[in-house]
Amino acid sequence: MSRVFNFSAGPATLPKAVLEQVRDEMLEWQDEGMSVMEMSHRGKAFVSILEQAEVDLRQLLEVPANYKILFLQGGASAQFSMVPLNLLGEKQQADYVNTGSWSKKAIAEAKRFCDVSVVADSSDVNFSRVPAQSELELNSDAAYLHYTGNNTIFGTEFHYVPDASDVPLVCDASSNILSRSVDVSKFGLIYAGAQKNI
After folding, report:
1. Average pLDDT of every residue of the chain
2. How many domains does the chain have?
3. Which of 21, 124, 131, 152 could form a disulfide with 135 if both were Cys (CB 3.0 to 4.6 A apart)?
4. What's residue 196's pLDDT?
5. Nearest residue to 177 (alpha-carbon basis) of 189, 155, 160, 194
6. What is the span of the domain harbouring residue 173?
């Protein structure tokens, strides 16, 4: 079989050894007598998979002990509503940086739940750059600051972690999570969809 190099904005090319292991374990996972796809999500074997995934992710990202790791359904797009629903609290406003298609979708969904202040917007230059920290017009009464770390459609990426001042910083890291070391303690929440690079 000839391998194709995939440089698309979606799923990345996986190492052949990973694909072979998945293939081999598809029919029977670690002598359990069944595929992982047939296991109860409450069963001991599947719970051990989740626990190991959390340990591995916590180690790879150096996630502090006071942070929780959640594996949720719905992909990153579901987070567009889950973020405001979980982080607004008593506040009525959230800050968003508009740097492309995914941040626009996050903004549109957040507007269903709160007042959204777009604190920086690169649409005037067709999203060809991300704003500098000095361009972020933050609101002290915001519940959080949301940004998309990497914009695959427009080919731009934040090369700095925005300073959110005294509010939680939220990052959609779907297309660049695990691509480099990041200080997780600077964030209130990092979310990502597993279909991209994980």
Report:
1. 92
2. 2
3. 131
4. 65
5. 194
6. 75-191
Give the 3-state DSSP-derived string for the chain, with helices as H, strands as E and coil as C: CCCCCCCCCCCCCCCHHHHHHHHHHHHCCCCCCCCHHHCCCCCHHHHHHHHHHHHHHHHHHCCCCCCCCCCCCCHHHHHHHHHHHHHCCCCCEEEEEECCHHHHHHHHHHCCCCEEEEEEECHHHCCCCCCCHHHCCCCCCCCCEEEECEECCCCEECCCCCCCCCCCEEEECCCCCCCCCCCHHHCCEEECCCCCCC
Taking residue 190's Cβ as centre, other Cβ atoms within 10 Å add up to 19
Closest CA to 124 of 99, 96, 159, 152: 99
Regarding whether 49 and 79 lie in a shared domain, the answer is no
pTM for the whole structure: 0.90
In the block, tokens 């925005």 appear at 162
Domain co-membership, 151 together with 95: yes
| Catalytically active residues, by annotation | 102, 172, 196
In a shared domain, residues 137 and 82: yes
- 103-156 confidence digits (pLDDT tens): 999 999 999 999 999 999 999 999 999 999 999 999 999 999 999 999 988 989
Same structural domain for residues 46 and 83?
Answer: no
pLDDT, one tens digit per residue, over 95-105 is 999 999 999 99
Residue 46 burial (CB count, 10 A): 16
